[in-house]
Amino acid sequence: MEDDAGPVTHDAPERLKALSHPLRRRILQRLTAHGPATSTTLGQVLGESTGTTSYHLRQLEKYGFIEEIPERSAGRERWWRAVQGPRDRRLPAPEDLDPAGRAALAEVVRLGHAEDLALLSRLPEEYARNREWTRLSRGFTRMTEEGLAEFFEAYLRLLREYGFSAEEAPPGARPVHIRLFTLPADED
């Protein structure tokens, strides 16, 4: 189902800093892919103490990445979910940030790269085991800068058109990792 919201750029240094912590990223990924959880269940799955996961959940909540589910929470047990907001979330250009923001952005990019490498290392096994859900393509072409920008926007429109939020997902829908990156080939 298409998401009409335009792109949102995470350009606030404090939000970037919140995303630059490895455990916070794992918590956010877990909530996004597997749905609501408590600090206790997250701690068990991620191999962390409840106190540690509670602290990082509060940090993610503070910067608007997750929210408590009041109707599921009771007493000291608090349930959390990823905020559904716009699906088109982007990182800012480094030159648009102050030095602290650039450092946080560099860490967010570094962590994202490490996560992408971990996913890539799973590709051969997943392709052999789960071909219906594991798709891959390698491409090479020539584009203008403007054409590449248009291609990127069209790709994001396709993600919005064919993707679903956790709440909208029809039966049989699964969370799927999708990555797109482009690099100039004449600098190899």
Structure description:
With 188 residues, this protein is mainly alpha-helical. The chain has a single domain (8-187), classed as Orthogonal Bundle (Arc Repressor Mutant, subunit A). It has helices at residues 13-19, 22-34, 39-46, 50-62, 99-129, 145-162, and strands at residues 8-9, 37-38, 66-68, 79-82, 89-90. The strands form two sheets. The chain has a three-stranded antiparallel β-sheet. The longest helix is centred in the middle third of the chain and has 31 residues, at 99-129. The chain is globular and about 60 Å long. It comes from Actinomadura viridis.
Short synopsis of the structure:
One of its GO terms (molecular function) is DNA-binding transcription factor activity. With 188 residues, the chain is mainly α.
Q: What attributes does this structure have?
A:
Arc Repressor Mutant, subunit A, 7% strand, WH_DNA-bd_sf, 6 helices, mainly alpha, two-stranded parallel sheet, 5 strands
